[in-house]
Amino acid sequence: MIALEKRPQPSAFWSYAAPLVAVILTMIFGAALFAALGKPPLEALSKIFWEPLFGEFSFFYLPQLLVKGAPLVAIALGLSLGFKAGIWNIGAEGQYIIGAICGAAVALAMYPSEARWLVFPAMLIAGAFGGFAWAMIPGILRVKFGTNEILVSLMLVYVAEQLLASMALGAMKNPEGMGFPGSRNMSQMDAATSWISQSNGMHWGVVIALIAVIFAYILFARHILGFQIKLAGQAPRAAAFSGVNPARLILFCLGTSGALAGIAGLTEVSGPAGIVSIDFNVGYGFTAIIVAFLGRLHPVGILLAGGLMALTYIGGDIAQSSLGLPGAAIQVFQGFLLFALLAVDVLTNYRVRLVQRGAA
Amino acid sequence: MTDTLMTLDGLTKAYPGVVANSDVSFEIGKGEVHALLGENGAGKSTLVKTIYGLVKPDSGTMTLEDTPFAPAEPRAARAAGIAMVFQHFSLFEALDVAENVALGMENPPPLRDLAQRIKEVSETYGLPLDPSRIVGDLSAGERQRVEIIRCLLQDPKVLIMDEPTSVLTPQEVEILFETLRKLKAEGTAILYISHKLEEIRSLCDNATILRLGQVVATCDPRQTSAREMAELMVGGTLHVPEREAKVDGDVLMQINGLNAKSPAEFGTSLKDITLEIRAGDVIGIGGVAGNGQDELLGALSGEITTAAGQIFFGGRDIGHLPPDARRTLGICAAPEERMGHAAAPDMSLTENAALTARKRKGLTKNGFLNWGKARGFAEEVIERFDVRTPGPGNAARSLSGGNLQKFVIGREILQDPQVLVVNQPTWGVDASAAAAIRQALLDLAAKGAAVIVISQDLDELMEISDSFAALNEGRLSKPRPARGLTVEEIGLMLGGAHDMEVAHVD
């Protein structure tokens, strides 16, 4: 019989090895899955993990990696604050949408102004504020009325999606768009675009995500607030005893994650996406949850995990188009990554022991 | 002695890094009350868990009524006639007594029949209990009766009791003992675990003393003095704290008609508490668990904030201040629950040092933590309070209960507080460490600080307090000088026996 025995100390080895083992397990599982679907398993894996980085067309895929990775990293960093403290913001997707709408509203209202020094910073502030305000709804409801922030933030995603559709078809529709849904293309406005270098995949969202990694790292390594967030998540009573104000902590964590998601949405809509359209959101807010846990809620881990996740997105697309793998198989593959991580994670705090059954 | 009911032969159980039981053998006869003595970590819990089927021994055998006995799980042990009352109750507060009893049974009868049987058993054994009452409303003594009746319904051959009197008033202890003596007269064997040596002397027929997992002595407690038994447990001589000459200091803190609602659903709200806390004073606050101890500590530490005009420190109203602000003023506290309240189990000792000491020890600057300084403070606590751990980088949960308690108390004392509030400072701590903690509290008071000791251990309170007050259902009695109080007087201050009567032994 196999028994789990709690370690007196979390294992330092396993806390680093667990993500690697999880990735390896996922590859084995993926190979089996692809083989069962009648596709060459090793080739599929190499399409997913090798082709985007080192293949013939990597000059095209590498910038894509930045574009896909930046919003994942930015959102996941924000979420990790709350997750560490036991505050579950599941609605980053909604905050991402509202951030994009608010930022776009500023850009479109100021069109055709060419004052980039004014327009783009104003958009950033509006985007951050939009995400912040949307996250404050579950935050204030939880603090004042004790509602469950998981449900409220999740349901607000669907509200945000309806709002997005209404904007794309109504208030923000391009007046020169010949009746097609969608706003003016902001990526082509010099004053409003978030692109820095489109051919390299560099936009302001990438820069902000990297700065956020550094800030989050310092917050957790040295600042009392990072310590209190950790404490509140691990031992809520000890946190109260230490002097942490739970209501303020909830609002800070939700507000920060909302603002980061809002900025991610704004830099996406004014760059890679370009227009406010019905299908603007592609699930970054949800995938970021996986990224946050895959990165063990550690800023550097999240940076690496965001890169890995972006890789499976791009590599998955390649495998779909060149091998005809169904899209659902790629999603199962990504889902298994989180599953494997959570399973292997047990080894950080527990050791496996083989116990003999029966004999006493 | 009567016939042998149960024998343990050569029981050995090792955990990684520690041998919990090593070649433990003894016998229990029918109708015998057998005491199991030992310091914390001596292996008593492992031994009773082995008997109860929760732990499988590495080697050794047991027999029950001359047949081999090796329970694979508690269910098998219960079926064989072993019953156990744990130190920590496993009851659902929101359910009533009968429902709680039914949850612990293999095949519970219909609730109405069960309620009838609970009534019968409780009357037979002098443990009055209304089966329809909600457990959340019961006192600790009444909750224990639920556990005991749950066991008695199984008609046990051996009843194991782990520290049963730690939550009872002296009167309630007498009632429990009458019940146990009645069970003994019926032929039930009782394995009785306790630290309280006087109790064991009055109740038990035989005692087995464990130290570091081994049987070091067996004795007849009626023939052996408490001091001899204590020295057998510790394996040395006991150091008794000394009290320095008492000075009548200035009033540091004043509590005027404090009312506070408990944040916990079945907690006890504080009602109209008035207390004057003077420099150099050690105030002992006794009371049965669950009578507002946690809430009183919370209201003083700042975890529970109160309305204006109820708590003053140096003439300043501090009822609204959170814990950090009160620490800055000089009020430190150490709650009863070490894991998860006084300390974060998964965090290192360095982080746990920063948990309360950051203001008074200047561990932060502009919100940035100075980890080097925090580590230095943790090392100081470890060294000064003899905390046994490889170093401050270790997680709090890797420490034994007593060691973590030394760390927690040391962390507060070394912050040099003006008022220190501690709840159960030596609970679960072995005798020599408990003596060291008490001495440290007395030294702090001798330096001019006020110390409030909330404890359920009356011997401890009598040993170190200058004045004594009792908490009962959230009310605090008027403090009286501790010297010269009798056990009966204290018992009455604690609220008597909660309307119980002594068992009628026929």
From TrEMBL, chain A:
It is a multi-pass membrane protein. Keywords: Cell membrane, Membrane, Transmembrane, Transmembrane helix. The chain crosses the membrane at residues 12-37, 57-82, 94-111, 117-138, 150-172, 204-225, 246-267, 273-293, 300-316, 328-347. It is found in: Cell membrane. The keyword Aminoacyl-tRNA synthetase does not apply. Its main location: membrane. This is ABC transporter permease.
From TrEMBL, chain B:
The keyword ATP-binding applies. One of its GO terms (molecular function) is ATP binding. Signal peptide: none annotated. Pfam families: ABC_tran. Keywords: ATP-binding, Nucleotide-binding. CDD domains: ABC_Carb_Monos_I, ABC_Carb_Monos_II. It comes from the Bacteria. Residues 6-237, 253-498 form the ABC transporter domain. InterPro entries: AAA+_ATPase, ABC_carbohydrate_import_ATPase, ABC_transporter-like_ATP-bd, ABC_transporter-like_CS, P-loop_NTPase. This is ABC transporter ATP-binding protein. It comes from Octadecabacter dasysiphoniae.
